[in-house]
Amino acid sequence: MRNGQGDDFFILFNNNGAIIKGFDHESPMSPYANEPRRVWPGVLDDVPDVFQGFIDEPAFAIEDTTFCL
Predict the structure, then answer these.
(1) In whole angstroms, what is the distance from residue 32 CA to residue 9 CA?
(2) How many CB atoms lie within 10 A of CB 60?
(3) CA angle 42, 43, 48 (to 5 degrees)
(4) pLDDT-derived band of residue 16, with 50, 70 and 90 as boundaries?
(5) DSSP 39-61
(6) SS3 33
(7) Rg, Å, the chain Cα set
(8) Which of 21, 26, 18 shows the shortest CA–CA distance to 10?
């Protein structure tokens, strides 16, 4: 889902469950609020190995992440 204003989220459902990655461009946790640009510490640290393919997929723009469930 993209709202046309710069926010988005992606969801993957598979046999292991689901993962949701999102980006809120106005969030203080936005990677663009940091120099150098980086995902907020801890947001992606505990993603289970079974979802690593999701994290590595360029189409999901992981570098633009403010939340991950």
Answers:
(1) 17
(2) 18
(3) 95
(4) very high
(5) PPTTSSTT--GGGHHHHH-GGG-
(6) helix
(7) 12
(8) 21
* Per-residue pLDDT band at 34 (split at 50, 70, 90): confident
Question: Six-digit token pair at 64?
Answer: 């633009």
Distance CA 36, CA 16 (A): 34
* Cis bond upstream, residue 36 (ω within 30): yes
d(CA 24, CA 52): 22
Global confidence as pTM: 0.87
Contact status, residue 24 vs residue 2, Cβ threshold 8 Å: no
